[in-house]
Write a structure and sequence with these properties.
This protein has about 80 residues and is mainly alpha-helical. The protein is about 50% helix and about 0% strand.
């Protein structure tokens, strides 16, 4: 030990994975679902800047989920015409 630091060197992962592992994917989807709920929960006017910004964020979230998983977000439930 030198001062407060150990002489151990962290192992650097040179060959990084090209995709998320199953557990990382599960954690990502759980976090995305929580973010989705926090975006859609507030009942604010559709005419305000905050609403429009949150809609932009929501669209980016849904695109990221589809890009990463190859599927539409499972936490979105459609009602009415076109329901699944």
């Amino acid at each position: 030990m030198v001062g407060r630091f150990s002489l151990e060197v962290a192992v650097v992962r040179r060959n990084k994975a090209k995709q998320l592992s199953e557990s990382e994917l599960d954690r990502f989807l759980m976090a995305a679902g929580e973010l989705h709920r926090s975006i859609v929960a507030p009942l604010i006017s559709t005419q305000c800047d905050h609403y429009r910004s949150m809609q932009t964020l929501h669209e980016a979230l849904l695109k990221a989920v589809k890009d990463i998983t190859g599927k539409d977000a499972a936490f979105i439930r459609w009602f009415g015409a076109g329901s699944q």
